[in-house]
Amino acid sequence: MRPTGTGAEPQGFDVQIESLSPEGRGVARLDGKVVFIADALPGEEVRFCYTRRRGRFDEGRLLEVLRPSPHRVEPRCDHFGVCGGCVLQHLDTDEQIRLKQGILLESLQHIGGVMPESVLAPLRAASWGYRRKARLGVRFVRKKQRVLVGFRERQSRYLADLRQCEVLHPSVGRHLAALGELIQGLSCYDRIAQVEVAVSDEETALVFRNLAPLSSADQLQLQEFARRYSVHIFLQPGGPDSVEALAGQTELLSYALPDFELELFFRPTDFTQVNSDLNRQMVARAIELLEPGAEDSVLELFCGIGNFSLPISRHVASVVAIEGAAGLVERARSNARHNGIGNVEFHVANLAEDSGTQPWLRGRSYSRVLLDPPRSGAPEMIGTLAAAAPRRIVYVSCNPATLARDAGELVNRHGYRLEAAGVMDMFPHTAHVESIACFVAN
Q1: pLDDT higher than 90, residue 235
Q2: Which CATH number fits domain 95-126+275-441: 3.40.50.20, 2.70.150.10, 3.40.50.150, 3.90.550.10?
Q3: Contact 172, 160 (CB under 8 A)
Q4: Known catalytic residues?
Q5: Backbone phi, then psi, for 408, in 5-degree steps?
Q6: Is the pTM of this model over 0.90?
């Protein structure tokens, strides 16, 4: 492709964008080498300049869109292009879903050597103000003489200067500037490391990671902010076990799963799904794919606070649910009691280790398995699960690459069929691909 540019202007190169990378950048080829170009979309002809050259690929910055994609839209957020929180706001949401579905299927085929017998219709919910869990960075910037609160800039350790966030729940996203002003007024303004956000069905909690003690005046300011913005404030002076609510603030949050007549309680720092509306759809789909019956026994791995196991228990004889974090298991057991559920056992175990000798697996039979592992997937568990010979396995994934790897093992080594797979838009406007897959024994 032809270069352009003269004088002090960066030298530009014109290329055709072939696809989208898993990180949400446009992928082009120049002189036989891959170039990743931020903000460029598949099908576009663009002009870019190099920002970094590597051995296997290069990186570039978009200078001009010469022929735009019909799916290009105006980003809603004023901070798009600077903030690293969202990278796909310039792509219409229908096309975001289509491309994510393509990433999932391509990963399954090229990494796992498998393809689903059917592709599930994507699950979707609201695409703005959906994010109910987040960790916001906090930094006092001396050059600006101001505390910034928000997400990092793209590919940078610096915090973006944000006034608001369009994907965060409005109870927080509209008040980032006010949150920065609050922290700047504290005596330890330069010793607040982060603010963790957790939004329930009814309430919003903010957990301040304070690396220095707060004065009485500081706590009064926090209480006034909590009253003015209708939020609950927690302090975390040390590790996760040090989190405590300010006087008079709620200790626990909750969300409902109305289709199953359930209410689940959680602490603000517990893992919960970021998108509550999508989560309700996801739980329903997982149970649909499990095809549970009244006589079935179900094993769930990475159960958290009982988000899947408690709804499943409404349909089966028994559920055994495993989680590595003892605090989450404590909350799951409490949630079972709160909802009057007695056919679920919860156990604490490290699922990154061989679990074949664990009492909840050795000598026990399960007709159904559900797992919702972290981004690293569940390679240590695949062989053990297959040896237990469940008829159906439902796998909820936040990383198509590790899902594809584990799917390849289940299908190509252990004789399962990949009956169905599809995406769930848990994180609209980001490159994150959440998916679900169902495996059936031959």
Answers
A1: yes
A2: 3.40.50.150
A3: no
A4: 398
A5: -60, -40
A6: yes
